[in-house]
Amino acid sequence: MTDSSSSPARPALRERKKARTRATIQACALRLFREQGYDATTIEQIIDAADVSETTFFRYFPTKEHVVLDDEYDPLLIQAFQAQPPELSSVQALRGAFAGVFGGMTAQQQAEQKERIMLILTVPRLRGAMLDQIPQAMQVLARAMAQRAGRQPDDLTVRAVAGAVVGAAVAVSAAVTDDAGADLPALIDQAIAHLEPCLAL
């Protein structure tokens, strides 16, 4: 007889294993990029370093660019945003969401995030791919903000606020590239705080 009491733990265990595999692949890739450069590093080398199969690699990352560009923070930010108290404005709620997600990073996670940011802004192919992702990021954020404010995602004001927030994130990325020792959560909080008095939904 199957012990049904253990079944809820199985999906969580699978998700933790998947997260560990993803993190291992990314950590090994970043080490190789650091040691020999992004362009000189092949997918085969990342697979060998992470000790995973080719199938496993492509299950998580369709291209080498995605190893740098993809992370778990966007869905976490949306979840944290949706969980903010209803009396907060959209920008205040976003500020709280960013503080909760990025403020909870370990020192290693912060270092890896900053390393990824610097790669994205200094490797032309990655920079171009990041720019291609901006409309999608704005769309995801606009949907979440519209839902909270009871408006439509294609509302121009919603789109403008979402665009300003994404622009602030890009500004933080540039600041991190200029100063590798910068405090990433503090920079993000400062950038969103500058928007708070000006933007409302």
Report on this model:
This protein has two domains: 1-64, Homeodomain-like (Arc Repressor Mutant, subunit A); 71-201, Tetracycline Repressor, domain 2 (Orthogonal Bundle). It contains ten helices and no strands. The protein has helices at 9-36, 43-50, 54-60, 64-69, 73-82, 90-103, 107-122, 124-149, 156-178, 184-195. The radius of gyration is 19 Å and the shape is globular. The model has no long low-confidence stretch (mean pLDDT 89).
Write the layout of secondary structure elements.
Elements: H1 9-36, H2 43-50, H3 54-60, H4 64-69, H5 73-82, H6 90-103, H7 107-122, H8 124-149, H9 156-178, H10 184-195
Helix pairs in contact: 1-2, 5-6, 6-10, 7-8, 7-9, 8-9, 9-10
Task: List descriptors.
single chain; 201 residues; mainly alpha; Arc Repressor Mutant, subunit A; 2 domains; 10 helices; 75% helix; globular
**Distance linking N and C termini:** 54 Å
Kindly report the average pLDDT value: 89
Q: Determine the strand fraction and express it as a percent band.
A: under 5%
The major pleated sheet works out as:
none
Shape: globular
Succession of helices and strands: HHHHHHHHHH
Gyration radius over CA: 19 Å
**How much helix, percentage-wise, in residues?**
over 70%
The CATH architecture of the largest domain can be named as: Orthogonal Bundle
Question: Which class of the largest domain in CATH terms?
Answer: Mainly Alpha
Uncertain residue segments: none
Query: How many separate structural domains?
Result: 2
Helix vs. strand class: mainly alpha
* Record field, number of beta strands: 0
